[in-house]
Amino acid sequence: MRAGIAMQLRRLVRTPSLLLGILLLVPVAMAVGVPGWIAPHDPELRGPALQQIDGRWAAPPYPPSREYPLGSDLRARDLLSRIVYGARVTLLLALVAAAIRILIGAILGWAAATFRGAVERWIVIAADISATLPSLLFAFLLIATIGPHRGLPVFLIGLGFTGWAAWTQLIYSGIRRIQAEPYMEAAEAIGTTRRSRLRYYLLPNLLPAVLPVIVQEIAAVLLLLAELGFLGIYLGSSSPLRLSDLLGGEQPQLPIPEWGGMLAGTRLEIFRWSWLPIVPAGAFFMTILGLYLLADGLRQQLDKAKS
Predict the structure, then answer these.
(1) Mean pLDDT of 246-262
(2) What is the Cα 302 distance to its own chain's centre?
(3) CA quadruple 122, 158, 162, 135: dihedral, nearest 10
(4) What are the CA-CA distances from residue 111 to residues 30, 35, 60, 127 (Å)?
(5) What does the pLDDT look like over 22-69, one tens digit per residue?
(6) CA 277 to chain centre
(7) DSSP state of 89
């Protein structure tokens, strides 16, 4: 067992992108699992209304200091604590939205590869049409039209019902490639059922190839969340989108900490209180970069296993 662990560690060290991706994602995983271990304060705890900084009394938001390592927001709440506690909501939203994308694309891709003729043709056409629609534009128009204040279902629809076309094409081409293999033709010739071929031949040969893409899909949804938050669309909004939100808006009073909402209304504040947009943007950047590095490392490991 020790030899197996040592071998896995050697493989990890020999794949720098995988190692760096894991290192970047460890604090994110801790923030999701045990936020109380990292956060120095309660995310809703307000600090003093005035604080002496460099010999002068100042009102919040407060810049980074010993008490506020990443600064505070306009209500004197610790940004580090809010980032930590907001990781669970943000990552959960990204995971569910990515799962919806993958599920829609996988079902349609499997149907196109299994049922030939009109079904295959129409699914491929629908995937091609969907692929031409920018994910940000689709999600923005749908959520803005229905209203971000409608809550979680609207965001899952807006984020999950775009971006599935790539999965349809991936699963479709992957299944067609595997179906052309001699062992699949032999399994079909001896009369194995479609379910048996799916379970024992298709899935074991398809899943390793799509595993890195699953990780990339989560990163893509997180990037879309950051872009929407920058435009003033975020989970926890209590009112319909207004033009002022697109032009800058005000920092919202979030009922729950969420990274996209922490970006909303702060982009113009970078010239006065730079930490307000930089902290949530940095959290998005670190997590997305870690996921992409992890996906690249997994792909390298799979390529080495094949060779």
Answers:
(1) 74
(2) 23
(3) 130
(4) 39, 42, 56, 12
(5) 999 999 999 999 998 999 988 888 888 878 777 787 888 888 988 899
(6) 19
(7) H
Q: How many CA atoms lie within 13 A of 115 on its CB side?
A: 10
3-state secondary structure of 52: strand
- Report the pLDDT value the prediction gives residue 179, as an integer from 0 to 100: 80
Mean pLDDT, residues 85-105 taken together: 95
Question: Could you tell me which residues come within 8 angstroms of residue 55 by beta carbon, excluding any fewer than 6 positions away?
Answer: none
Instruction: Indicate the pTM of the whole model.
Output: 0.88
Question: Tokens standing for 63?
Answer: 């810049």
Farthest-apart Cα atoms in the chain, separation: 85
Residue 92 has a pLDDT of 94
Range of weakest confidence among 44-58, 86-100, 120-134, 213-227:
44-58
Which pair of tokens denotes residue 107? 């079902």
Q: If you ran DSSP here, which 8-state letter would residue 202 be given? A: I
Percentages (nearest 5) of helix, strand, coil residues in the chain:
70, 5, 25
SS3 229: helix
| Beta-carbon contacts of residue 2 (< 8 Å; ≥ 6 apart) | none
| C-alpha separations of 158 from 97, 196, 285 in Å | 9, 35, 22
Query: Phi/psi at 132 (nearest 5 deg)?
Result: -80, -10
Q: Terminal CA-to-CA distance of the chain, rounded, Å?
A: 24
Query: Which pLDDT score, from 0 to 100, does residue 185 have?
Result: 76
Q: What pLDDT was estimated at residue 269?
A: 80
Buried b (16+ CB within 10 A) or exposed e, 253-273: ebeebbbbbbbbbbbebeeeb
Exposed / middle / buried, residue 305 (Cβ in 10 Å: 0-12, 13-18, 19+): exposed
